Amino acid sequence: MFFSARLLAAKTNVAILGAAGGIGQPLSLLTKLNPAISNLALYDLVNTPGVAADLSHINTPAKVKGYKGPDELDAALKGADVVIIPAGVPRKPGMSRDDLFNTNAGIVKSLASAAARVCPDAHLLVIANPVNSTVPIVAEVFKKAGVYNPKRLFGVTTLDVVRASTFVAEAQTQATGKAIDPSDVKVTVIGGHSGVTILPILSQTGLSFSQEEVDALTHRIQFGGDEVVKAKDGAGSATLSMAQAGARFTDSLIRALNGEKNVVEPCFVESPVAAEQGIKFFASNVTLGKEGVDTIHPIGKLNAFEETLFEKVIPELKKNIQKGVEFANQA
Protein backbone atom coordinates (compact mmCIF):
# COMPACT_ATOMS: atom_id res chain seq x y z
CA MET A 1 0.00 0.00 0.00
CA PHE A 2 0.96 3.65 -0.33
CA PHE A 3 0.25 4.49 3.31
CA SER A 4 3.04 5.67 5.57
CA ALA A 5 3.61 3.88 8.88
CA ARG A 6 5.25 7.06 10.14
CA LEU A 7 1.82 8.61 10.58
CA LEU A 8 0.46 6.07 13.04
CA ALA A 9 0.15 8.75 15.73
CA ALA A 10 -1.65 11.21 13.48
CA LYS A 11 -5.26 12.07 14.19
CA THR A 12 -7.26 12.94 11.10
CA ASN A 13 -11.03 12.85 10.77
CA VAL A 14 -12.30 12.01 7.30
CA ALA A 15 -15.87 12.14 5.95
CA ILE A 16 -16.84 10.44 2.69
CA LEU A 17 -20.04 11.71 1.08
CA GLY A 18 -21.43 9.07 -1.25
CA ALA A 19 -19.78 6.25 0.66
CA ALA A 20 -22.20 3.50 -0.40
CA GLY A 21 -21.73 4.03 -4.14
CA GLY A 22 -19.54 2.40 -6.74
CA ILE A 23 -16.56 4.62 -5.93
CA GLY A 24 -17.57 5.26 -2.34
CA GLN A 25 -17.37 1.67 -1.07
CA PRO A 26 -13.86 0.79 -2.33
CA LEU A 27 -12.71 4.30 -1.41
CA SER A 28 -14.06 3.78 2.10
CA LEU A 29 -12.22 0.46 2.32
CA LEU A 30 -8.91 1.95 1.19
CA THR A 31 -9.36 4.91 3.51
CA LYS A 32 -10.07 2.61 6.47
CA LEU A 33 -6.69 0.99 5.84
CA ASN A 34 -4.86 4.32 6.25
CA PRO A 35 -3.21 4.33 9.71
CA ALA A 36 -3.21 8.13 9.83
CA ILE A 37 -7.01 8.32 10.06
CA SER A 38 -8.66 8.22 13.48
CA ASN A 39 -12.32 8.64 12.54
CA LEU A 40 -14.09 7.78 9.29
CA ALA A 41 -17.63 9.09 8.77
CA LEU A 42 -19.52 7.47 5.90
CA TYR A 43 -22.54 9.28 4.48
CA ASP A 44 -25.02 8.34 1.77
CA LEU A 45 -28.75 8.16 1.20
CA VAL A 46 -28.84 4.38 1.73
CA ASN A 47 -26.77 1.45 3.02
CA THR A 48 -24.08 3.35 4.92
CA PRO A 49 -24.75 1.74 8.32
CA GLY A 50 -24.10 -1.64 6.71
CA VAL A 51 -20.95 -0.47 4.93
CA ALA A 52 -19.69 1.05 8.18
CA ALA A 53 -20.42 -2.09 10.18
CA ASP A 54 -18.58 -4.20 7.62
CA LEU A 55 -15.51 -1.94 7.57
CA SER A 56 -15.46 -1.60 11.36
CA HIS A 57 -14.31 -5.22 11.64
CA ILE A 58 -11.01 -4.39 9.89
CA ASN A 59 -8.16 -4.17 12.40
CA THR A 60 -6.92 -0.66 11.70
CA PRO A 61 -7.15 2.37 14.04
CA ALA A 62 -9.91 4.32 12.28
CA LYS A 63 -13.29 4.27 14.02
CA VAL A 64 -16.06 4.01 11.43
CA LYS A 65 -19.64 5.25 11.66
CA GLY A 66 -22.34 5.29 9.01
CA TYR A 67 -24.81 8.14 8.49
CA LYS A 68 -27.88 7.78 6.29
CA GLY A 69 -30.13 10.41 4.75
CA PRO A 70 -30.23 14.22 4.76
CA ASP A 71 -31.15 14.40 8.44
CA GLU A 72 -27.79 12.86 9.36
CA LEU A 73 -25.57 14.81 6.95
CA ASP A 74 -24.56 17.48 9.45
CA ALA A 75 -23.60 14.84 12.00
CA ALA A 76 -21.43 13.09 9.40
CA LEU A 77 -19.57 16.31 8.66
CA LYS A 78 -19.07 17.46 12.23
CA GLY A 79 -15.38 17.66 13.11
CA ALA A 80 -14.17 16.59 9.66
CA ASP A 81 -10.65 17.62 8.67
CA VAL A 82 -10.98 16.13 5.18
CA VAL A 83 -14.22 15.72 3.21
CA ILE A 84 -14.20 13.51 0.11
CA ILE A 85 -17.11 13.79 -2.33
CA PRO A 86 -17.52 10.84 -4.70
CA ALA A 87 -21.34 11.22 -4.62
CA GLY A 88 -23.29 11.29 -7.86
CA VAL A 89 -24.50 9.09 -10.70
CA PRO A 90 -21.99 7.14 -12.82
CA ARG A 91 -21.48 7.48 -16.55
CA LYS A 92 -23.14 5.01 -18.90
CA PRO A 93 -22.19 4.09 -22.47
CA GLY A 94 -22.49 7.09 -24.77
CA MET A 95 -22.51 9.57 -21.90
CA SER A 96 -19.95 12.33 -21.59
CA ARG A 97 -19.09 13.84 -18.23
CA ASP A 98 -21.15 16.85 -19.25
CA ASP A 99 -24.18 14.60 -19.55
CA LEU A 100 -23.88 14.00 -15.82
CA PHE A 101 -24.03 17.68 -15.02
CA ASN A 102 -27.70 18.28 -14.32
CA THR A 103 -27.91 15.51 -11.71
CA ASN A 104 -24.48 15.69 -10.12
CA ALA A 105 -24.30 19.48 -9.99
CA GLY A 106 -27.32 19.61 -7.70
CA ILE A 107 -25.95 16.86 -5.46
CA VAL A 108 -22.59 18.58 -5.11
CA LYS A 109 -24.15 21.97 -4.45
CA SER A 110 -26.27 20.52 -1.64
CA LEU A 111 -23.34 18.69 -0.03
CA ALA A 112 -21.08 21.73 -0.34
CA SER A 113 -23.69 23.91 1.36
CA ALA A 114 -23.73 21.54 4.33
CA ALA A 115 -19.92 21.43 4.50
CA ALA A 116 -19.69 25.22 4.37
CA ARG A 117 -22.06 25.39 7.32
CA VAL A 118 -20.73 22.52 9.46
CA CYS A 119 -17.00 22.21 8.70
CA PRO A 120 -15.94 25.33 6.81
CA ASP A 121 -12.24 24.79 7.52
CA ALA A 122 -12.13 21.23 6.17
CA HIS A 123 -10.19 20.28 3.05
CA LEU A 124 -12.64 19.30 0.30
CA LEU A 125 -11.68 16.65 -2.25
CA VAL A 126 -14.12 16.60 -5.16
CA ILE A 127 -14.37 13.40 -7.18
CA ALA A 128 -17.97 13.82 -8.41
CA ASN A 129 -17.98 14.43 -12.16
CA PRO A 130 -17.80 16.61 -14.13
CA VAL A 131 -14.92 17.85 -11.94
CA ASN A 132 -14.25 20.79 -14.28
CA SER A 133 -17.67 22.13 -13.23
CA THR A 134 -18.26 20.67 -9.76
CA VAL A 135 -15.14 22.24 -8.25
CA PRO A 136 -16.25 25.76 -9.28
CA ILE A 137 -19.68 24.95 -7.82
CA VAL A 138 -18.13 24.18 -4.44
CA ALA A 139 -16.01 27.34 -4.63
CA GLU A 140 -19.07 29.51 -5.31
CA VAL A 141 -21.05 27.91 -2.48
CA PHE A 142 -18.22 28.56 -0.04
CA LYS A 143 -17.82 32.13 -1.30
CA LYS A 144 -21.52 32.81 -0.66
CA ALA A 145 -21.09 31.46 2.86
CA GLY A 146 -18.04 33.69 3.38
CA VAL A 147 -15.74 30.75 4.17
CA TYR A 148 -13.93 30.06 0.88
CA ASN A 149 -10.25 29.15 1.13
CA PRO A 150 -8.80 28.22 -2.30
CA LYS A 151 -5.96 26.34 -0.61
CA ARG A 152 -8.45 23.80 0.76
CA LEU A 153 -10.44 22.89 -2.35
CA PHE A 154 -9.21 20.16 -4.72
CA GLY A 155 -10.55 18.44 -7.78
CA VAL A 156 -9.05 14.95 -7.69
CA THR A 157 -7.43 14.34 -11.09
CA THR A 158 -4.99 11.69 -9.85
CA LEU A 159 -6.63 9.01 -11.99
CA ASP A 160 -5.45 10.77 -15.15
CA VAL A 161 -1.84 10.44 -13.97
CA VAL A 162 -2.36 6.86 -12.79
CA ARG A 163 -3.75 5.94 -16.22
CA ALA A 164 -0.99 7.82 -18.02
CA SER A 165 1.70 5.94 -16.09
CA THR A 166 0.03 2.62 -16.84
CA PHE A 167 -0.55 3.24 -20.54
CA VAL A 168 2.92 4.67 -21.17
CA ALA A 169 4.58 1.77 -19.37
CA GLU A 170 2.58 -0.69 -21.47
CA ALA A 171 3.53 1.09 -24.70
CA GLN A 172 7.22 1.31 -23.77
CA THR A 173 7.32 -2.34 -22.73
CA GLN A 174 5.83 -3.35 -26.06
CA ALA A 175 8.14 -1.06 -28.03
CA THR A 176 11.38 -2.01 -26.27
CA GLY A 177 10.69 -5.58 -25.18
CA LYS A 178 11.84 -4.61 -21.69
CA ALA A 179 9.34 -4.79 -18.82
CA ILE A 180 8.73 -1.39 -17.26
CA ASP A 181 7.10 -0.91 -13.87
CA PRO A 182 4.23 1.60 -14.31
CA SER A 183 4.94 3.07 -10.88
CA ASP A 184 8.35 4.16 -12.16
CA VAL A 185 6.85 6.14 -15.06
CA LYS A 186 6.08 9.78 -14.22
CA VAL A 187 3.78 11.63 -16.59
CA THR A 188 2.70 15.21 -15.94
CA VAL A 189 -0.96 15.71 -16.87
CA ILE A 190 -2.42 19.21 -16.94
CA GLY A 191 -5.65 21.02 -17.84
CA GLY A 192 -8.90 19.51 -16.61
CA HIS A 193 -10.49 16.14 -15.97
CA SER A 194 -12.48 15.25 -19.08
CA GLY A 195 -11.76 14.48 -22.71
CA VAL A 196 -9.71 17.07 -24.56
CA THR A 197 -9.14 19.09 -21.38
CA ILE A 198 -6.81 16.29 -20.21
CA LEU A 199 -3.35 17.11 -21.57
CA PRO A 200 -0.55 14.58 -20.92
CA ILE A 201 2.88 16.13 -21.44
CA LEU A 202 4.69 13.13 -22.87
CA SER A 203 7.62 15.26 -23.99
CA GLN A 204 8.62 15.75 -20.35
CA THR A 205 8.85 12.03 -19.49
CA GLY A 206 12.38 11.62 -20.85
CA LEU A 207 11.12 8.71 -22.99
CA SER A 208 11.14 8.39 -26.76
CA PHE A 209 7.92 8.04 -28.76
CA SER A 210 7.01 8.06 -32.41
CA GLN A 211 4.33 10.55 -33.40
CA GLU A 212 2.00 7.62 -33.96
CA GLU A 213 2.61 6.48 -30.37
CA VAL A 214 2.09 10.02 -29.06
CA ASP A 215 -1.23 10.30 -30.90
CA ALA A 216 -2.46 6.94 -29.60
CA LEU A 217 -1.30 7.49 -26.02
CA THR A 218 -2.71 11.00 -25.84
CA HIS A 219 -6.13 9.84 -27.03
CA ARG A 220 -6.14 6.85 -24.69
CA ILE A 221 -5.20 8.96 -21.66
CA GLN A 222 -7.84 11.54 -22.53
CA PHE A 223 -10.60 8.98 -23.08
CA GLY A 224 -9.43 6.09 -20.90
CA GLY A 225 -12.60 6.30 -18.86
CA ASP A 226 -14.60 5.38 -21.94
CA GLU A 227 -12.82 2.01 -22.07
CA VAL A 228 -14.18 1.14 -18.65
CA VAL A 229 -17.68 2.44 -19.35
CA LYS A 230 -17.83 0.34 -22.53
CA ALA A 231 -16.35 -2.76 -20.87
CA LYS A 232 -18.86 -2.59 -18.02
CA ASP A 233 -21.62 -2.57 -20.62
CA GLY A 234 -23.97 -0.20 -18.87
CA ALA A 235 -23.14 -1.33 -15.35
CA GLY A 236 -21.09 1.73 -14.41
CA SER A 237 -17.91 3.66 -14.96
CA ALA A 238 -14.41 3.62 -13.47
CA THR A 239 -14.95 2.93 -9.77
CA LEU A 240 -12.08 0.78 -8.50
CA SER A 241 -9.31 2.72 -10.24
CA MET A 242 -10.92 6.01 -9.19
CA ALA A 243 -11.14 4.79 -5.61
CA GLN A 244 -7.43 3.93 -5.63
CA ALA A 245 -6.57 7.32 -7.09
CA GLY A 246 -8.79 9.08 -4.54
CA ALA A 247 -7.23 7.16 -1.66
CA ARG A 248 -3.76 7.99 -2.95
CA PHE A 249 -4.54 11.70 -3.09
CA THR A 250 -6.15 11.59 0.36
CA ASP A 251 -3.07 9.93 1.82
CA SER A 252 -0.76 12.46 0.15
CA LEU A 253 -2.79 15.35 1.53
CA ILE A 254 -2.85 13.91 5.06
CA ARG A 255 0.91 13.36 4.97
CA ALA A 256 1.40 16.99 3.93
CA LEU A 257 -1.04 18.29 6.55
CA ASN A 258 1.01 16.43 9.13
CA GLY A 259 4.24 18.12 8.09
CA GLU A 260 5.79 15.85 5.47
CA LYS A 261 7.73 17.89 2.91
CA ASN A 262 7.84 17.67 -0.88
CA VAL A 263 4.49 15.91 -1.31
CA VAL A 264 3.45 16.56 -4.92
CA GLU A 265 0.18 15.48 -6.52
CA PRO A 266 -1.72 16.64 -9.59
CA CYS A 267 -5.04 18.31 -8.83
CA PHE A 268 -7.58 20.76 -10.21
CA VAL A 269 -7.39 23.91 -8.09
CA GLU A 270 -7.76 27.67 -8.27
CA SER A 271 -4.57 28.42 -10.14
CA PRO A 272 -2.62 31.21 -11.85
CA VAL A 273 -1.21 28.80 -14.46
CA ALA A 274 -3.71 29.67 -17.21
CA ALA A 275 -4.84 33.03 -15.86
CA GLU A 276 -3.70 34.82 -19.03
CA GLN A 277 -6.18 32.69 -20.96
CA GLY A 278 -9.00 33.61 -18.57
CA ILE A 279 -8.97 30.24 -16.79
CA LYS A 280 -9.40 30.38 -13.02
CA PHE A 281 -9.17 26.65 -12.24
CA PHE A 282 -6.52 24.39 -13.73
CA ALA A 283 -4.97 20.99 -13.07
CA SER A 284 -1.20 20.74 -12.69
CA ASN A 285 1.32 19.38 -10.24
CA VAL A 286 0.85 20.91 -6.79
CA THR A 287 3.08 20.69 -3.73
CA LEU A 288 0.81 20.07 -0.76
CA GLY A 289 1.50 21.56 2.66
CA LYS A 290 0.08 22.12 6.12
CA GLU A 291 -2.58 24.48 4.76
CA GLY A 292 -3.43 22.39 1.71
CA VAL A 293 -2.16 23.94 -1.52
CA ASP A 294 1.40 25.12 -0.97
CA THR A 295 3.01 25.58 -4.40
CA ILE A 296 1.35 25.38 -7.81
CA HIS A 297 3.94 24.30 -10.34
CA PRO A 298 4.21 25.81 -13.82
CA ILE A 299 3.54 23.47 -16.71
CA GLY A 300 7.03 23.76 -18.16
CA LYS A 301 7.99 23.65 -21.82
CA LEU A 302 5.54 22.15 -24.30
CA ASN A 303 6.45 20.91 -27.74
CA ALA A 304 4.56 22.03 -30.86
CA PHE A 305 2.08 19.13 -30.67
CA GLU A 306 1.31 19.84 -27.01
CA GLU A 307 0.92 23.55 -27.72
CA THR A 308 -1.80 22.63 -30.21
CA LEU A 309 -3.50 20.46 -27.59
CA PHE A 310 -3.25 23.28 -25.03
CA GLU A 311 -5.11 25.59 -27.41
CA LYS A 312 -7.94 23.04 -27.46
CA VAL A 313 -8.00 22.77 -23.66
CA ILE A 314 -8.70 26.46 -23.05
CA PRO A 315 -12.15 27.02 -24.65
CA GLU A 316 -13.55 23.73 -23.38
CA LEU A 317 -12.26 24.24 -19.85
CA LYS A 318 -13.49 27.83 -19.79
CA LYS A 319 -16.96 26.65 -20.81
CA ASN A 320 -16.99 23.90 -18.15
CA ILE A 321 -15.93 26.28 -15.38
CA GLN A 322 -18.47 28.91 -16.36
CA LYS A 323 -21.21 26.30 -16.42
CA GLY A 324 -20.43 25.43 -12.80
CA VAL A 325 -20.28 29.04 -11.70
CA GLU A 326 -23.62 29.85 -13.32
CA PHE A 327 -25.29 26.80 -11.78
CA ALA A 328 -24.02 27.65 -8.30
CA ASN A 329 -25.36 31.20 -8.55
CA GLN A 330 -28.84 30.25 -9.66
CA ALA A 331 -31.49 31.28 -7.15
Written account of the structure:
This protein has helices at residues 24-32, 48-55, 73-77, 101-118, 131-144, 158-176, 211-222, 224-231, 240-257, 304-328; strands at residues 12-17, 37-44, 63-68, 82-85, 123-126, 153-155, 188-191, 198-201, 263-270, 281-289, 292-296. With 331 residues, it is α/β, with parallel strands linked by helices. The protein has one domain (1-331): Alpha-Beta Complex (L-2-Hydroxyisocaproate Dehydrogenase, Chain A, domain 2), CATH 3.90.110.10. The strands form 3 sheets. Strands 3-2-1-4-5-6 form a 6-stranded parallel sheet, with helices on both faces. It has a 3-stranded antiparallel sheet with strand order 9-10-11. Helix 5 links the parallel strand 5 (123-126) and strand 6 (153-155). The radius of gyration is 19 Å and the shape is globular. The chain starts with 11 loop residues before the first strand and ends with a helix. Residues 5-9 have low confidence and may be disordered.
